[in-house]
Amino acid sequence: MFQRVLFPTDGSDVSLAAADAAITMAKLTGATLQPVYVVEPYPFTGIGVARPSGFDDYMAASRQVAARAFERIERIAQAGGVRCEPLTVEHARAADGIVETAGSVGADLIVMGSHGRSGVARLVLGSVATKVLQLSPVPVLIVKAGDAAAA
Predict the structure, then answer these.
(1) Looking at the DSSP assignment, which residues form a beta bridge with residue 7?
(2) Cα(134)–Cα(5) distance, integer angstroms
(3) DSSP classification of residue 81
(4) Residue 121 binned pLDDT confidence (cut-offs 50, 70, 90)
(5) How confident is the model at residue 146 (pLDDT cuts 50, 70, 90)?
(6) By three-state DSSP, how is residue 109 classified?
(7) pLDDT at residue 20 in the model
(8) How far apart are CA 136 and CA 74, in angstroms?
(9) Angle between helices 94-105 and 128-135 (to 10 degrees)
(10) Whole-prediction pTM
(11) Where does 21-84 show beta strands of DSSP type E?
């Protein structure tokens, strides 16, 4: 059914709690798990005096967070017998990077975590999961933080 399951992660507990669902879907269908970490553009470009070390620090910290997240996911996937191919995407907004990556790697399914905010909190804070749902041409499975913790 699925050949490649894309699993976006930001290294947070919310996203990693959804890893079990992503790994289970990959295992049940014999798919490859493709964890992806999107490094958003440097937030201080064009503000004040350019400080190259700030950009370098930002990128290094982002890559470290991605590596830690991938390490945890790969360990769980390996224990479950699931092939895992992590990928870091740089200089893209989260939702756009996720959807574009799904297309470029041929993902059949996106499995991602969400805080499950509603009402004003969702409007103010936005939701990467909601944006991915709106933009994605492939099915998206959203695992709410509370649901993942209960599983």
Answers:
(1) 35
(2) 18
(3) T
(4) very low
(5) low
(6) strand
(7) 92
(8) 25
(9) 40
(10) 0.85
(11) 32-39
Is residue 35 within 8 Å of residue 84, measured between CB atoms? yes
CATH topology of domain 4-150: Rossmann fold (3.40.50)
Tell me the C-alpha to C-alpha distance, in Å, between residue 13 and each of 51, 72, 148. Answer: 31, 11, 10
What is the residue whose two structure tokens read 């992806």?
36
**Where along the chain do its domains lie?**
4-150
Contact between 139 and 5 under an 8 Å Cβ cutoff? The reply is: no
Tokens for 112, please give them. Answer: 């991602």
User: Which amino acid appears at position 132 of this protein?
Assistant: V
Q: Return d(Cα 133, Cα 31) in angstroms, integer.
A: 21
Which token pair is 72?
A: 């945890």
Nearest to 151 by CA among 22, 42, 60, 41: 22
